């Protein structure tokens, strides 16, 4: 029985590690998969167990994350107990968190982003812009007594997760934990005052939408004025400087993000 289970696991791991099926199973090719495994083991502290390699643990975690699948599905495909799947999943998540300082690098504003510099559509208008910030609602499982505070725009509880991104589509700051009813302005205020705070270089700014307040370091569109690109389509060009500003602001954010 054990040998049969091992053969199934070996077949799954072979498809991930040595065939194009890896893209379907874990959403990445073999080279990227092994690089990630090596990094999590070397820098994240992920260790092989007596019966499971680092590669198998990472494969299970990626399968769950990329397919939003249940524990029991992974339990079936990898022929492991539900407890083992859950433990390995959290081991991988902890290792990923250990890589935070390696990947979440906030811009220092010392140079104009290459995506802006030399592009006459955006330079010099966005030469001091270091990226964009927005909130996104992620489904959350909370106690029933807390559910009303987390049920904002959705019919189910969510966290309003704040994220900052640069022009090359790299996340530089993420703040999780705020309930779904919390406003973007309230969350950005918290992000700016924490010990591990969002840092905006002097004289630089992020693009944000109308859900945020206009402050030093955050550029918002004019309120009560057309903002989204689709509102300017066809024969509806900007009619004044406020509409032109909003168009450029949304165009810049949409073009890159």
UniProtKB/TrEMBL annotation:
It comes from the Eukaryota. It is found in: Nucleus. InterPro entries: DUF8040, HARBI1-like, HARBI1_dom. Pfam families: DDE_Tnp_4, DUF8040. Its main location: nucleus. GO terms for cellular component: nucleus. Its cofactor is a divalent metal cation. One of its GO terms (molecular function) is hydrolase activity. PANTHER family: NUCLEASE HARBI1, PTHR22930. Belongs to the HARBI1 family. This is DDE Tnp4 domain-containing protein. The lineage of its organism: Eukaryota, Viridiplantae, Streptophyta, Embryophyta, Tracheophyta.
């Amino acid at each position: 029985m054990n040998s049969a289970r091992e053969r199934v696991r070996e077949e799954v791991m072979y498809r991930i590690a040595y065939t194009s099926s890896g893209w379907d199973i874990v959403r990445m090719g073999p080279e990227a998969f092994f690089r990630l495994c090596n990094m999590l083991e070397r820098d994240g502290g992920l260790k092989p167990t007596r019966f499971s390699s680092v590669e198998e643990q990472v494969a299970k975690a990626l399968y769950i994350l990329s397919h939003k699948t249940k524990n029991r599905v992974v339990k079936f495909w990898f022929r492991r107990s539900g407890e083992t799947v859950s433990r390995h999943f959290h081991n991988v998540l902890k290792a990923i968190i250990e890589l935070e300082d390696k990947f979440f690098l906030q811009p220092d504003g010392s140079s104009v982003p290459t995506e802006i510099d030399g592009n006459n559509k955006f330079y010099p208008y966005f030469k001091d812009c270091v990226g964009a910030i927005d909130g996104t609602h992620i489904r959350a499982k909370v106690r029933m007594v807390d559910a009303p505070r987390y049920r904002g725009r959705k019919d189910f509880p969510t966290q309003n997760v704040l994220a900052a991104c640069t022009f090359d589509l790299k996340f530089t700051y993420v703040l999780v934990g705020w309930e779904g009813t919390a406003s973007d302005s309230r969350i950005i205020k918290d992000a700016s005052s924490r010990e591990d705070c969002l840092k905006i270089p002097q004289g630089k700014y992020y693009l944000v939408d109308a859900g945020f307040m206009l402050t030093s370091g955050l550029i918002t569109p004019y309120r009560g004025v057309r903002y989204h690109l689709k509102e300017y389509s066809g024969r509806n060009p900007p009619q004044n400087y406020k509409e032109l500003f909003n168009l450029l602001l949304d165009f810049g954010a949409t073009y890159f993000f």
